[in-house]
Write a structure and sequence with these properties.
The complex is a heterodimer of chains A (650) and B (340).
Chain A (H helix, E strand, L loop, with lengths): L1 H4 L6 H20 L6 H4 L9 H15 L2 H24 L12 H33 L3 H31 L1 H16 L2 H12 L3 H26 L2 H9 L4 H12 L1 H21 L8 H10 L3 H27 L9 H4 L1 H19 L15 H40 L2 H34 L2 H29 L3 H16 L6 H8 L3 H25 L3 H9 L4 H34 L8 H10 L3 H35 L1
Chain B lengths: L5 E12 L14 H6 L3 E12 L3 E6 L5 H8 L7 E6 L2 E2 L5 H10 L1 E4 L11 H12 L3 H14 L15 H14 L4 E5 L7 H18 L2 E5 L3 H7 L2 E6 L2 E6 L1 H6 L4 H6 L5 H4 L19 E2 L4 H10 L4 E6 L2 E7 H9 L4
Parallel strand pairs in B: 3-8, 3-9, 6-7, 7-8, 11-12
Antiparallel strand pairs in B: 1-2, 1-4, 4-5, 9-10, 12-13
Helix pairs in contact in B: 4-5, 4-6, 5-6, 12-13
The chains are: A mainly alpha (650), B alpha/beta (340).
The structure holds adenosine-5'-triphosphate and magnesium ion.
């Protein structure tokens, strides 16, 4: 109580001065760069630490000496057994239980009924329609290859997440250990997960499933922890007074009471799985992702668009259904048995009908390549004409961006002395959060310098920098436009939500279509991907301003413009910064993914590490990316938090 | 009420919330301010009391005075900071987990202030939950749950989820859940707070009936003095975590131990609380004339007869025998206020 009202210690001024000193030092280094010894411009060779070799040695030790290989083998065999079952059921791979592929009509009916049960007629239409589309367009087998992995990976992730979340909830120590690991895990780019999996498991669906499981566990752990923490104490006490044992309390009181959070975790697991499964095509995972990759590399736009639509539809269906499940509260049922189980009965009827249809006509069992309703050729032609038409614009834009913006900026980033960058980061850190933040910044930045990948990292930084800057230029006005009134902001947020469910890979289709395979396409993809969170947080920041403040400003005679400039924007800035932070994270992920269409940054090296299965290198690069993200995250959130607190208390 | 065996006994119980309650040195004289200086809060302060079999102890006090916390300590939902709580002679602080679970399954029941219903179970499943934990078979626990739900007037709502019930209905599910197992020791934390007056009275009658029939030991928290007077064998008044007075309703009203209790009971209509016997003077050879009045009735119930009586000293009878004399003037003073 007392301490809260004490005046802040007079350290503030010093903090500013120290930060200034660091920044000045950095400036001096930049100004006198031509005169600097080489060792200050880039760290001398002797200082570069062979992180990759160490990691490789550790992995080799774990594999050969600790017998980790047997453990992973056992696990991957288990996963493979499950995959065989789903593969047999969904697309008829000749494995146990030898049932053969379920006719698409049956699966579409099932999806539709599940949609109906969870969210009514609209969701039923969306879910059923998506599967009909997939079948009719002749993409059934690829989609089922993808789904067969998701169906296996999601339950594994959910169970792991529940177990580890419970562990973290039970023991403070476990939470302390898990928390930083999760932070890093959630900022590691997708490829960083793939390389060790390739080393231990190999390539193919099995590896795809396992990398998907590993990648999608972290949000489940977090949501489990959050849910268990949030259960009201009286519910737990009432459980205890009913005489539950610890296990009973866990399984019958705590976990069911945390249902909503846990199901939101499941939703996140599903979405992460979909994103990863699509990308796992890089390690030989068949399915929609692989098809898309091949088509994009062959520049077959029409077919890629069709597959892109399928992936987008699947993403929306999976997201809406799992979210509907999470928010659905139990409701009492009345009436006779037949009435209460009507959905089940209708579903059974539809399934029977589907089987009968499939038996009567093979079209309802599988749509052959020839019968498929693909419109790729006309689309290709139309796109060709369109591109022809706008190519003067895009060509000019490409030329302009590359020669006047991208290359000069890239060169400038590369020109900066490493030491100056480190000093500047320390200075900014000190300004934002004192000594601690300065040390945190250095702890993230120094390893990148020491790893020897500085130049590549700077190219990644430059790409992200340009992309986020462009995203801000695009996103903030869009956000302002969206926040005009309640109805419109809800529509905008819905669109943002939907865009965020798309696997990142999808964003490459239109940009490759427009710009071809080059730097500008990468930036364009990243910009589109990174604009979404900016729009969303701009809207949320503006909508979150207490109405009294706006009203009091209006009563002071502020015009709408003045209101925006002097009241709304300053108040929305902390929220906007949170959006920018997410935008940076998204950009980093996207830059790395986009590497396969040609960049020279960390992502490209990571692709190389993937193809040469160099775990050490891959992980070092992955950590470099993660550290960049975490550094930005630390600075921005710390600042936004301080700013938000300052605003609220005044 | 005959002095029978003590069921719950607590000695110098402290419950302190804060960062390091274990490091504190607590003595009976430790004050709130001393604790506050170390940013601790004593929710229960040096409480000692005994509750006997068949007794209903009503705990009263302002919001935040530590009533709920005290009850939680008695049920060991909270581990106390110092002191001992004994239930049927066993120190519950020392029970192992299986013993504690056994105790709760076999002996204890509780109604929670904010109900504590399991959101994912229907009313019926909520009520059946403690039976399920006891290992009772499905058919019999469902039957029993139906029975008690009907008792609390929720027939027809068995399949509803807590979210779909009103506050009062949820509270009745909570009551039914604790009734289902017929516990010997019953903790009721404002069990009727959300009920309308009619159902409230029905519930009170039901509890009185059960208590009379089965010799239950009940700790009952309420903010409603009328309710307390209807139900209580003894009342404990709490202030800032300490029990200011624990006594029969008569004595709480007539002989408040502290100014706080006096103030707390100020607004009550005394005539409704005080029994004629509580004012009785010894006979001491004085003449006993005419028909006696029953000593066990409240003055309020006897008002008409006292006003109409002309005797200065009215004899009182307990179980057919003259037990004392009632000073009519004193009784009228209590009924009508002191003469001016
Ligand atoms: N878990 C806890 N942590 C910290 N302080 C607590 C906790 N539980 C209760 N307290 C404090 O203990 C004091 C007593 O709380 P308690 O809930 O026992 O009051 P009460 O008498 O039941 O009040 P009411 O009539 O409002 O239910 C309060 O000051 C409360 O803030
Ligand atoms: Mg209370």
């Amino acid at each position: 109580m007392m301490t809260a009202t004490l005046p802040p210690p007079p350290l503030r001024l010093d903090q500013k001065r120290i930060a200034l000193a660091f920044l000045l030092a950095a400036l001096v280094l930049v100004i006198f760069r031509p005169a600097l010894p080489a060792g200050l411009i880039r760290l001398p060779e002797g200082l570069i630490l062979p992180f990759a070799d160490w990691i490789n040695a550790t992995f080799a030790f774990a594999r050969d000496e600790l017998g980790l290989m047997t453990v992973t083998r056992a696990f991957s065999d288990m996963v493979e057994a499950c995959l065989d079952v789903t593969a047999n059921l969904l697309y008829g791979k000749s494995r146990w239980p030898y049932v053969g592929p379920i006719p698409w009509a049956v699966i579409a009916a099932t999806a539709g009924m599940a949609g109906y049960a969870l969210g009514g007629a609209r969701l039923a239409l969306l879910a059923g329609g998506t599967f009909v589309w997939i079948a009719v367009m002749g993409q059934w087998k690829w989609a089922m290859e993808t789904l067969s992995v998701i169906v296996v990976a999601v339950p594994f992730s959910v169970v792991f997440g529940l177990l580890m979340g419970t562990l973290a909830w039970r023991s403070r120590l476990a939470e302390r250990i898990l928390n930083p690991i999760l932070n890093i895990a959630q900022s590691l780019p997708h490829f960083a997960y793939m390389i060790p999996v390739v080393v231990f498991i190999g390539v193919g669906p099995k590896a795809g499933a396992i990398v998907t499981i590993i990648f999608s566990v972290p949000p489940m752990i977090r949501m489990t922890l959050l849910g268990l923490r949030g259960v009201s104490p009286e519910i737990i006490e009432s459980g205890k007074m009913s005489g539950t044992t610890r296990l009973q309390l866990m399984t019958r009181v705590r976990l069911p009471a945390a249902r909503t959070e846990i199901l939101i975790g499941v939703n996140q697991v599903i979405m992460q799985s979909l994103a990863m499964v699509v990308l796992a095509s890089f390690i030989g995972m068949p399915g929609l992702g692989q098809k898309l990759l091949q088509l994009l590399q062959a520049l077959k736009i029409g077919l890629s668009v069709e597959i892109g639509i399928t992936i987008v539809l699947l993403a929306i269906v999976l997201d809406r259904m799992s979210k509907a499940w999470a928010v659905k509260q139990p409701e009492h049922a009345t009436g006779p048995w037949l009435y209460r189980h009507r959905l089940l009965l209708i579903w059974l009827g539809l399934v029977a009908l589907g089987f009968v249809l499939a038996w009567v006509h093979p079209y309802f069992s599988e749509v052959g390549r020839k019968q498929a309703l693909s419109m790729a050729e006309p689309v290709d032609a139309a796109v060709g004409v369109l591109i022809e038409m706008i190519s003067p614009v895009t060509d000019w834009l490409r030329w302009f961006l590359i020669t006047w913006v991208l290359i000069p900026l890239r060169d400038a980033f590369l020109w900066l002395p490493t030491t100056a960058v480190l000093l500047a980061l320390a200075g900014i850190g000190w300004r934002v959060g004192g000594l601690r933040s300065a040390l945190v910044c250095l702890a993230f930045a120094l390893p990148i310098a020491l790893s020897g990948w500085w130049d590549r990292a700077m190219i990644t930084v430059y790409t992200v920098f340009v992309s986020v800057a462009l995203a801000l230029i695009l996103g903030v006005p869009l956000g302002l436009l969206g926040a005009v009134n309640e109805a419109r902001s809800r529509r905008f947020l819905l669109v943002c939500d939907t865009f965020q469910t798309f696997p990142s890979f999808i964003y490459l289709i239109p940009v490759i279509m427009l710009f071809g395979v080059n730097d500008v396409a990468v930036i364009a993809a990243v910009v589109v991907f990174a604009t979404v969170p900016i729009v969303r947080y701009t809207i949320e920041g503006l909508r979150g301003i207490p109405p009294e403040i706006v009203e009091s400003a209006q009563m002071s005679g502020a015009s709408p413009m003045q209101l925006l400039r002097h009241v709304k924007l300053p108040l929305a800035v902390p929220t906007l910064v949170v959006g920018a932070n997410q935008s940076i994270m998204f950009s980093l992920f996207m830059v790395i993914i986009a590497a396969f269409i040609g960049t020279q940054d960390l992502g490209q090296e990571m692709q190389r590490a993937l193809s040469s299965t160099d775990v050490g290198k891959g992980l070092v690069l992955g950590f470099a990316v993660a550290f960049m993200g975490l550094l930005a995250d630390h600075l921005l959130l710390k600042w936004a938090h301080g700013r938000g607190v300052a605003l609220r208390s005044s | 009420m005959t002095a029978s065996e003590v069921v719950i006994s607590c000695r110098n119980v402290w419950k302190v919330f804060g960062d390091y309650p274990d490091r504190l040195r607590l003595t009976p004289d430790t004050t709130m301010d001393e604790l506050r200086a170390t940013s601790h809060i004593a929710a229960v302060r040096n409480v000692s009391l005994d509750i006997r079999r068949g007794e209903m102890l009503v705990v009263m006090g302002l919001s935040g005075s530590g009533k709920s916390t005290l009850v939680r300590c008695l049920a060991r939902l909270l581990d106390i900071t110092s002191g001992t709580v004994e239930v049927e002679g066993r120190d519950i602080g020392k029970l192992t987990e299986p013993q504690l679970i056994e105790l709760r399954r076999k002996k204890m029941g509780m109604v929670f202030q904010s109900f504590g219903l399991l959101p994912h179970r229907t009313a019926l499943e909520n009520v059946a939950f403690p039976l399920e934990m006891r290992g009772q078979d499905r058919a019999s626990r469902i039957a029993r749950a139906r029975e008690v739900l009907e008792l609390v007037g929720l027939k027809g709502r068995e399949g509803y989820f807590p979210r779909e019930l009103s506050g009062g209905q949820q509270q009745r599910v909570g009551i039914a859940r604790s009734l289902a197992v017929e516990p010997d020791i019953w903790f009721l934390d404002e069990p009727f707070s959300a009920l309308d007056p009619l159902i409230r009275r029905e519930m009170q009658d039901e509890f009185l009936r059960l208590k009379g029939m089965l010799a239950k030991t009940i700790v009952f928290i309420t903010h409603d003095f009328d309710e307390a007077l209807r139900l209580a064998d003894r009342i404990a008044i709490m202030k800032d975590g300490a029990v200011e007075q624990i006594d029969t309703p008569d004595r709480i009203v007539m002989a408040p131990a502290t100014p706080y209790v006096a103030k707390f009971t100020e607004s009550i209509d005394r005539a409704r609380v005080i029994h004629a016997g509580a004012l009785a003077l010894p006979v001491d050879g004085r003449p006993v004339e005419g028909d006696p009045l029953p000593a066990g009735e409240t003055l309020h119930a006897l008002a008409r007869r006292i006003v109409g009586d002309s005797r200065v000293l009215i004899p009182l009878s307990t179980q057919g025998r003259i037990s004392g004399l009632l000073d009519r003037k004193a009784a009228l003073d209590l009924l009508l206020g002191p003469a001016t």
